[in-house]
Each structure stands twice: as C-alpha cells, then as structure tokens.
Design goal:
The structure holds 2 protein chains of 2 kinds. Chain A is built from 5 helices and 6 strands, in the order H-H-E-H-E-E-E-E-E-H-H. Chain A is α+β, with helices and mostly antiparallel strands. Chain A has one domain (36-155): Ribosomal Protein L14. A 5-stranded mixed sheet of chain A has the order 1-6-4-3-2. Chain A is globular. Chain B is an alpha+beta fold. Chain B contains 8 helices and 5 strands; from the N terminus they run ααααβββββαααα. Chain B has helices spanning 2-26, 34-43, 47-62, 77-93, 238-247, 256-262, 266-297, 299-303, and strands spanning 104-110, 118-129, 136-143, 146-153, 159-166. A 5-stranded antiparallel sheet of chain B has the order 4-3-2-1-5, with no helix packed on it. In chain B, a hairpin with a 2-residue loop joins strand 3 (136-143) and strand 4. The longest helix of chain B has 32 residues, at 266-297. The chains are: A alpha+beta, B alpha+beta. Chains A and B meet through helix 1, strand 5 and helix 4 of A and strand 4 and helix 5 of B. Strand 5 (107-108) of chain A pairs antiparallel with strand 4 (146-153) of chain B, so a sheet runs across the interface.
Amino acid sequence: MFKTLVSKIIPSTLTPTKCCSIMPPTCSFHTTSCLNEVRLLTRLRVVDNSEIGKRAMAEGKPPRVICVYNKKRVGFIGDRVLVAIKGQKKKGILVGLKQIQKVRVPKFDSNNVVLIDDNGTPLGNRIHVPIPTILRTILKERTHAKGADYTKLLAIATRFV
Amino acid sequence: MVLAVRKSVEWGITAAKLFVRRECRILSTLPEKQEYAEKQIERAPSGRKSITKKSILESRHIYPEFLPDPNPNWRNSLREKLEREDMLKRRGQVEIPEFYVGSVLAVTISDPHAQSKTNKFVGICIERKGCGLRADFTLRNVVDHQGVEVRYDLYDPTIQKIQVLRLEKRLDDKLLYLRDSLPEYSTFPFDMDQEILPEGSEVPVNPIQVVLKPKPWVERWERQELKGIANIEEYLTEKNKIKRELRKTPWEKYDLMKQYRKTIPIEDQKEIWTEVYTQLHQLQSAQKKMSRKRVFTSPKSLLA
C-alpha cells in the first residue's frame, strides 16, 4: 500500500527501497507543537539600542539564557534573566514572550529582552518595539526601596500595547 | 384500517429520521457549508416557516457562541441556559457587533496597568473559538515591525467597546498562518477608519492569498488544505509531499456520524434560537438605529 502510494506520487525520482530507508513506517517520538518557553539556553532578541545588544543582533549571534531568576526556572513576562552575549554575562528583563499568554496580555512573535545592569538601569536609551502594559505593574511590584529600580526601563519604552 | 394508520405513522417517522439525518449535515458552523444550507432551505415549502428557519440558520453564523459544545460530557442544560441569559444581559450593556475570522476589529478595554486606564488594540481576527461565556477571539497586528497577538474574551466585563473597522471573511476558518506570512498581510494602522458596508448587502469574502516566509513554520500548513496560501508548494520537500498524501483523510467528508457528533442537532438548535431570537433581534435593531444616528450626525460626513 505504502509503496504503491509512493510510486504514484514520484515514480521516477525515488525507488521504493530508497524511500523506506528515508522514512520509517512508524514514528516512535511525538510531534506536538512546542511550548516556546524561555528556559536555559533559549535564544532571545535584544530590543533596546545598547551597543553590545545591537552588535550581537547584527552579527547573528543573539544572546542565550544562562539563568532565569525565579523558582520555576522558566521565564515569564517581567522576569530577570542572565544572558550570555558576545562572551559576556549580562542581566536582562523579559519584555515580550512567544509563549501562550493569559487573556488580554499580548503575545509576541519573538522572545524580547532588554539588557540592564545590576541596579536595574537599562544599558540602552530606547526600546524600539511595543511593550505590554502589564509590565508596568509587574516591575513596580518587583522594585523595592533600597534594591534595584526596574521602573527605569518603562521610561525608555516608546510604545505600549 | 388500523394497519394502514400504523403504516402511515411508521412512514412518517422514517421520513422524519431521513430529514433529520439530512439536516444534521447542514448544522455545522463551518462557513463552507453555508451555500449548501441555503439551497436546502429554498427547497423547503411554506414561506413563513422558511423565513424563520433561514434567520435561525443565519444566526448560527453570526452568534456561534450561543450554541453549546457538542461534546455530551460537557453538556448541562441548566448551565447553558443560565449562560445564555448572562450573555444576553452583557449584550444589552455593550455592543458586540457581528464579525468573522478575517474582519478587522478595534477593541477598547479598561486597563488598570495603562496610564490612561484604557487600552485600544486594532488587529485582524485570526481565530474565534469557545462556547457560551468562555467564547474568545484573537487579534493580530504588526506594530513597529513586531508581530503582536492579543486574545480577548468576548464577554469580558472590562471590554468597553468593540468596533468592526472592516467587515469581511477570508477563505479559511482560522488565519493562524498569518504568523508565518510576510508582515504586510497582518499590518493595520491603529488610526484606521471604519468602512461602512451598504445596508442589506452580504458580508464580502476577501479572496486574498498570503505569501509565506520560508521554513521553519509554526505548524505544518501543507497538511491542512488551506486555500489562503499562495506559495506553499515552493517550500515543500519530497518528504513533505509524501507525508501530506499519507495523512490525507478524504473519507471524512462522508462520515455522517462524525459530522453529527461535531454539531448540535436541529431540534436542540431550534430550542435555543427560539429562546434567544426575539431578544437578539431587538438588540440588533437597536444597534442599527444607533449606528444610523451616529452616521448621520458625524462631523466627518458633514465636512465631506
């Protein structure tokens, strides 16, 4: 049955024996769509205009996550991550995710990150993609009086959705 | 005599069964079957009945969320009834217009996180799903070269306004392939003007075919028999084509039982629509009046 079907589709290019070697009749692994979670070694997209971020994106070597600072070790919106970028370790904040989001929270086509230093000050001075409004509340909650101030990131955003 | 009566009764029952079997095919909410459904109605005798029937069958496309999920494990007649009441109440509060997958919508919600406390998003509706109060729709737009999607519940109490900027349908039931197509196909300006269709006209179907980007894709679009993609063949390898042939299920359109299980039978639908039809009709006419008023007094038309 299978051989006849294959020969019907492409009679000349592939012989049945070749075909069977290429494609086993059954698959032992599942092929469901992935969750698009931000985990260890996920590639991110830098969306601010910091020098290091711009150069890394232009060279086609986007940063990789090497630590997510939360208990679950899966990055959600507004979470702090440590990334490896151009041979350096930098901290960043996730400002847009590919993963399925809750109702009314925007879902983006790429995993976006804004690079910050230890005090929470962004390395660039402009973010050139839209930022979810829910980030305002999340970052305000994460900011403490004497610790890092993450709300500076909101000041350099150009557009909210 | 008695025998004859019994025979005639039996004949009637079989005829009814046949009729039901035939009907069950039209009851799916899929848009492709719409023409078929209308043909069936034209054949039906007696004018008045056919009008009510037609409006019933039309409202299943306009208000698909009023029909419950056909899965018998999830049915509960009391819950469904209460949900319908709540939905009608909500529709009395906020105008939820007729829209389809492929229409361009503007949704304004009250957002405690935003500075102005309201948030407006414009985008093309790529998916509409769910039944009852859980019905939701997804809008997609490309803002500053970044694809953004937002999912909204249709009966969310934070929604202030839903506006249909362009009312049209597309060739497919879901436009999820816009995620893998070129950005110009899902780019809509936030200050887009509302396009008003002439009254009484049918909802137009936009026959546009999108151009896909090369792989990797989010899903295997080649297996889904989509009509709205122009250039899928140029990206497929031989293996993809073989797999597509093997995964085809051409017998499914003849599977009456499967279709029956996927849809709500006509008796149940009649009950539901007779329950909600008068109120929905009233709401619709009130909305029409309001929209006419707005068109008449808008300053733009005066300037033009």
